[in-house]
Amino acid sequence: MIRNLAEMTWLEVQQLNLDEALVFLPVSPLEQHGPHLPIGMDLFGAEFLTRKMAELFQSLHPSWEVLLVPGLPIGSNAFDYPGSLFTRQRVIRDLLVDYGACLARHGLIHQVMISVHGGTGHIVAMEEAADILARRFKCRIIAPFGALASKYFHGGYDEQLGALSGTPLTPEERKQLRSDWHAGWWETSLMLAACPHLVRPEYRELQEVRVDDFRKVNDQLVKSLNEGLGYLGAPAKASAEFGELLSGLLAVDGVRLIDRIVVGGGAVQPNDRSPLYDIPFMRTDFVRNSVAVGAGVLLTLLGGLPLLEAVRRGGIPFLPEDKKPLPPRED
Fold this sequence. Notes:
Rossmann fold; 45% helix
């Protein structure tokens, strides 16, 4: 059974069979998506993909209870246009850790965090939160969108899309998908499938804006291209059929990850995350860890263990924040 968590009582939640209860949490920011898509596109898309995954999972595991948490309109690394609402990357990580911890403390340890927002820091923050929850609370948890998006942008769905549609993608169409970064072919198609009434009809007239190197994509570039309309890709190629096909493929791969990691208890492998997760400076704790390493090196240069002993005995005031000083040891 698929149920909305917000509509349940706490007693109903308490009575769940926790061994077979799976929680989905969609989370994406409000962000500009060109002149043709609503600011809530990422959130609506995350909820749509969540529902697809939940329905597929439920069909494969009919004895499980599937709980849907209301989508969180929050995220980081969004384009700074009027109406875009986003936060620091660390806020996303900490919020998801707090939410996941609330669920885990009451036994809901099977969790899935879903997004369709491509902000690099946002994706990594979700993966960091999942890793923290797995370590601290023994959660069986996955944030699969980084891996799914990476497969999409590397052409991993091209053959299946051609086979399912009955028309193989042309070489030019494959190139277009590789640079379909924002509010283009894929996202416009997703909204035509999920919320067609929110797609402005002028999408059919928008010319393609192609940027091949994702590393160059930022606010300044987007605002300098095509009168700053705010999209990158080919929205005119969009269709509801393409949105249904691709979201269906993403759902299948997402459920495969859920089966192996969340249900089966398997370890999260490098290919189950975004490649960005393994880049140290993409992490929210990069600065803190760098400072800690630097402090360790400095500590060694200044005297190493004798200095630590002096701190321990109270000879050097090195106090944790919000802690009262302790008297020196008498031994």
